[in-house]
Amino acid sequence: MSEIDLFSPVTIGDLKLSNRMVMAPMTRNRAAEGCVPQDINATYYAQRASAGLIITEASQVSEEGIGYPATPGIHNEEQVAGWKKITSAVHNNDGKIFIQLWFCGRISHPDLLPGNQTPVAPSAIQPEGEAITFEGMKPFVMPRALETSEMADIVQQYKKAAQMAKDAGFDGIEVHAANGYLLDQFLRDGSNVRTDEYGGSPENRMRMLNEVLDAVSEVWPENVGVRLSPENSFNSMSDSEPKAHFSYFIEQLNRRKLAYLHVLEGDMMTQSRTLDYRALRDLYDGIYIANCGYDLERGQSSIADGDSDLVAYGVPFLANPDLVHRFKNGLPLNEADQATFYGGDETGYTDYPFA
Ligand code: PHB
User: What predicted TM-score, i.e. pTM, was given to this entire model?
Assistant: First the structure.
């Protein structure tokens, strides 16, 4: 047991955070036309600036990376201008904010993509389930397997987005390599059956993530985090040996000076949690953020027991802009309204009351 708790300061990268409660990345589908962040998004994030760290909703690194309507992008000047309002509003309230960079890969649909192109993936393996399009739900399509020669361009898209994140005033970036999106599609063998240097061994399956991390670290030598989800089956994902494979991936991340490793501990779909996350955590030398349905009590014991350094809260932060104050003072929490999670206006977004 240690004296450290959720309300203790901590340093990640070159940043001092005032507490160890992280606002988890949450897709809210409230960007304006052109995937441009808007004023209401600034209000939402600024309301939650007492989190030790905000990680934004996932934001596509290019037009080709999109997978859902009304998710923000970080690949053109208009979007940078939109994000600037958000980073200023959060900084004015003494908050810290990282942007989560994603490329959806096969979790997309031609309706959403430039020129109605086919979504890309490591391998032509069609996910089960449906994409959310402008015309409602449509079955996922068979993705096109990327050519080896196309990888470098996707890596450059991440690098360009990382630079735009810097221009927009973010404190750092989180590379989204979890939850069944492109980089996770490379990591796990249920979605990657390539026979070139990007598939086969764990070393090869990690190549794309490593190349992305090398590229974005040139822009951000300090403040890069990575998110993994070793056993999440969301988005039709599977892996033959998650324990062995993710142990390898996590050990490899030790070679880098990351700001943190952020792990979704369990399966979003079934709520099951079969891996020994303490063992995975112990393989990692740096700062570890735990996420997956934590409450105040479990968050406190996770930190006290050394199972994590910080805890990321999703829905509790969505419904309680002042979650830190409420946890600190043992105040009751607002109930989250599922019906207003995705899309819409200020209802269920910026109108949750402060205690
Ligand atoms: C979602 O939109 O449902 C979503 C997006 C990103 C995630 C997980 C879920 O990492």
Answer: 0.98
